[in-house]
Amino acid sequence: MKNQTFAAVSAAAVLGLTAIVPVPALAEDKSAATISVSEKEPVGRYLADSEGLSLYMLEADTQGVGGTEAVSTCSDKCTEEWPPLTTSGEPQAGEQLDASLLSSIEREDGSMQVTYNGWPLYHYHDDKESGDMSGQDVHDDWGGWYLVSPSGEKNEGKAD
Q1: Which pairing describes strands 34-40 and 92-93: parallel, antiparallel, or unpaired?
Q2: Counting Cβ atoms within 10 Å, is residue 35 exposed (0-12), middle (13-18) or buried (19+)?
Q3: For residue 14, is it left (φ>0), alpha (ψ between -120 and 50) or beta?
């Protein structure tokens, strides 16, 4: 593409023409992730993304508190079932959340994963609509998964 573009511009310059050179589309920049509080019985209040999709923590992860850096243990096949919540900017705290508990960590692939109270945050692949919480209290090959409360702790409520 680079050589073709140069050739097109050079030919146009020699002929005194204006060349219209195709420009590759720029990658769309994701906006910063925004975290909010949702509420649904019987679990009560929990974290959700800007589209209302539930956010989970994995007990096997390392919580980043007291000088300990947060570490995500979910990679490869795990991320197919539990996609990390990533951001391209500083994550934003919605109403009823403590913005000082919101941060991010760099994943092995270079993406930035959002954390809350030091816990890396994830979606669950079976949650398709706002209010879905089918990942609550799931125990699988990677460990126990829980919704995250607004205080940044695991929500131990039982989902329907």
Answers
A1: parallel
A2: buried
A3: alpha
In degrees, rounded to 5, the angle at the alpha carbon of residue 134 between the alpha carbons of residues 60 and 112 is: 50
CB 118 within 8 A of CB 63: yes
Q: Round to whole Å and give the CA distance between 142 and 151.
A: 24
Per-residue pLDDT of the chain (160 residues; tens, 9 = 90+): 434 333 433 444 444 443 333 333 333 334 689 999 999 999 999 999 999 999 999 999 999 998 899 999 999 999 999 999 999 999 999 989 999 999 999 999 999 999 999 999 999 999 999 999 999 999 999 999 999 999 999 998 887 6
How far apart are alpha carbons 158 and 68 in whole angstroms? 30
User: Which tokens go with 16?
Assistant: 């005194």
Residues 6+ apart with CB under 8 A from 84: 72, 74, 107, 111, 113, 114, 120, 121, 122, 123
Return the structure tokens found at 66. 């007291």
> Would the pTM count as exceeding 0.70?
yes
